[in-house]
Every structure is written in structure tokens, then in C-alpha cells.
Design a protein that fits this description.
alpha/beta; 2-enoyl-CoA Hydratase, Chain A, domain 1; 2 domains; 5 strands; about 10% strand; elongated; Peptidase S49 domain-containing protein; Peptidase_S49; serine protease; S49_SppA_C
Length: about 250
């Protein structure tokens, strides 16, 4: 058996395009990236595409240097918890809500009963604490680059364009991934794209096989035309985006 060859990248470039997500998952991924970067002494560069907001901006901070496009949306340094209230709706339906708990706050902010002030206060405490954790990561990662900036505005949950973010110190400048990495590594840089394998077969590309097998088994019915075409359209868009990325990096 031939010996396995080890691969040591000159740098890692992470492209982000997301409005955010779980604070905990963002924290875990951020810590993992920073730990591996320190262990391997590999520089990490992060780049915002259309949007890197909230949890995605948290991930951007894992880079030794952080960049965005001029028109990218960056920031949203805040925390949100959204729910709904259906108290009147459940009354109109003639339903009675029955919830049994052990622990005063176990049914915190149940949407089917009126809001209790003390429960709102408990939730606000959790949101503030998570927000404080987010702000601490920003301060640690950006350091003097955000010194002098109005923190109340910076941490208000606003999003900024790439140029605004660079001016505020939230990023290190405006630059697309390929151009910046050639500046950092050299013109002979070779990009190794880390992503899912390219799908094979016409049926898979257009999502028909998955649509037929998944939708057809639902309650024993044949899939409707809208569901199949919707699935196929999304699969085609995914495939085009993937092939575009492959072409961008010469793969």
C-alpha cells in the first residue's frame, strides 16, 4: 500500500454567506477554527459574500484577517428570540391548553397563554448574557480596530455594507477571496475547494430521482407536479452554484 501523503495548506480561506443561526453552534465552530489555526500555525482568512450577519459574523471573527465585498452585508451583532402569541386564536377554536410542569419556568413564554412579566424578564436576562458573549468575542478579535467606535451603535444589531464595516473596523478591508489570497500567497496559489462531492447523473442533477422517491412515498400518493418541479428547480440552482464555485477555483 502506498504511503499516504500529508497536505499542509499555506492558508485557509473561509467564504461565508449566511444571515446567521444558533449562537452556540457559531461559538463551537469559531473555537474549533481558532484551535486548529493555533495548533497548525496556519493563517485563516474569512470572507463575506452576500451576507455575513449575526452568527455568520461570529464565524468571520475566527479569521486572522476578515474581508468583505463592497456591497456585502456584515454585522448584526445582536441576539434574537422570536415566537408568537395564539391566546385569542385558541379561545376562538374552543380549545383548552393543558400543560403540566415541575419547575416555575419550565413552560417559559408558552404561546398559548398570556405573557407573564417575570418570564419576559428571565428571557431578557438570557438574551443579554448571550449578547455579552458575542460582544466579548468581537472586542477580543477586533481589538484596537474598533477603538473609538460608538459601541452602542456597533452592537445594536445593525447590518453594514462591506465598505461601512471596513470603516468601522469590523473587517480589515474590502477584497474578494481570490484576489486577496493571491496577494497573500502569490500568483501561483492553487485553491483546493472543500465542499460536498459533485452530484452525478441527470436525474440527480435535476432532483427528479430524489423528488420521486421522497414525495412518492408520502401516504402512498404520487408526487404532485409542483412539488417535483420545485425540488428539481432547487436542485438545479444548487448544482449551478456548485459548478460556478468549481470554475472559480479552476477545479
Amino acid at each position: 500500500m502506498p504511503a499516504l501523503k500529508t497536505f499542509r495548506p499555506a492558508a485557509v480561506a473561509i467564504s461565508l454567506n449566511s444571515p446567521g443561526g444558533s449562537a452556540t453552534q457559531s461559538e463551537l465552530i469559531y473555537e474549533r477554527i481558532r484551535t486548529l489555526a493555533k495548533q497548525t500555525k496556519t493563517p485563516v482568512y474569512t470572507f463575506a459574500e452576500d451576507i455575513a450577519a449575526s452568527g455568520a459574523y461570529w464565524l468571520m471573527l475566527a479569521g486572522n484577517e476578515v474581508y468583505a465585498n463592497r456591497t456585502s452585508l456584515v454585522g448584526s451583532i445582536g441576539v434574537i428570540n422570536s415566537t408568537f402569541g395564539a391566546v385569542e386564536a385558541i379561545k376562538r377554536l374552543g380549545l383548552e391548553r393543558r400543560v403540566y410542569t415541575a419547575g416555575k419556568y419550565k413552560g417559559l413564554l408558552d404561546p398559548f397563554r398570556p405573557v407573564h412579566k417575570d418570564e419576559e424578564e428571565r428571557l431578557a436576562e438570557m438574551l443579554r448574557d448571550t449578547h455579552d458573549s458575542f460582544k466579548a468575542v468581537v472586542r477580543e478579535a477586533r481589538g484596537k480596530k474598533i477603538a473609538g467606535v460608538n459601541e452602542e451603535e456597533l452592537f445594536s444589531g445593525r447590518v453594514w455594507t462591506g465598505r461601512q464595516a471596513a470603516h468601522l473596523g469590523l473587517t480589515d478591508g474590502v477584497a474578494p477571496l481570490e484576489t486577496k489570497m493571491r496577494d497573500k500567497v502569490g500568483d501561483n496559489v492553487h485553491f483546493v475547494l472543500c465542499s460536498e462531492p459533485l452530484r452525478r447523473g441527470l436525474a440527480d442533477v435535476f432532483g427528479v430521482r430524489a423528488g420521486l422517491s421522497g414525495l412518492g412515498g408520502l401516504l402512498g400518493r404520487q408526487p404532485d407536479f409542483y412539488s417535483v418541479t420545485s425540488c428539481a428547480s432547487q436542485a438545479l440552482l444548487d448544482e449551478l452554484q456548485y459548478r460556478s464555485m468549481m470554475a472559480r477555483y479552476g477545479l
